Amino acid sequence: MAKTPEEQAIAALPHKLVAAMNARDIEGIMSVYVPDETLFVFDTMPPRQFVGARAYRKAFEGLLAAYPGRTRYDVEELSVTADRSVGFCHWICHMVGTAADGGIAEMIFRLTSCARKVRDEWLIVHEHVSFPVDLATGKADVLARP
């Protein structure tokens, strides 16, 4: 569990992110990220690498469009490390959602979110989102748990 004020602030970021995703609130989603072109993200969504907040916002807009029905995101297994100006957390995001075609999708993402204190506010400046890969098939295992 987060103990220092810095760790507590960083631990709040994934919770704020999934609350905004559950509410389908694009402004809330983007509020956890640095709002400029220094944001750098590796994600499971094409093109899989995003440079800048504008590019990542478009990806989230596409994600919300791809899952227009009831969608639920949850934070699991959150761990935080921080000092006074930088920190990171790794966590699991469990998602169950209704896709545009009406099908139900379930995925378990692994995330590492790196945060920096920007004008007294903790913001994510780098993030890596992934699934493990089944090396025998070369396919992502979207339901694997650690």
Protein model, in words:
The longest helix is centred in the N-terminal third of the chain and has 19 residues, at 5-23. The mean pLDDT is 95. By secondary structure, the chain is α+β, with helices and mostly antiparallel strands. A hairpin with a 6-residue loop joins strand 1 (40-42) and strand 2 (49-51). The chain has one domain: Nuclear Transport Factor 2, Chain: A, CATH 3.10.450. 26% of the residues lie in helices and 41% in strands. The strands form two sheets. Strands 2-1-6-5-4-3 form a six-stranded mixed β-sheet, with helices on one face.
Q: How many domains? A: 1
The name of the CATH topology is: Nuclear Transport Factor 2, Chain: A
Task: Give the low-confidence spans.
Answer: none
Write the CATH architecture name. Roll
Layout of secondary structure:
Blueprint: H1 5-23, H2 26-30, E1 40-42, E2 49-51, H3 53-66, E3 71-82, E4 86-98, E5 104-118, E6 121-130, E7 133-134, E8 139-140
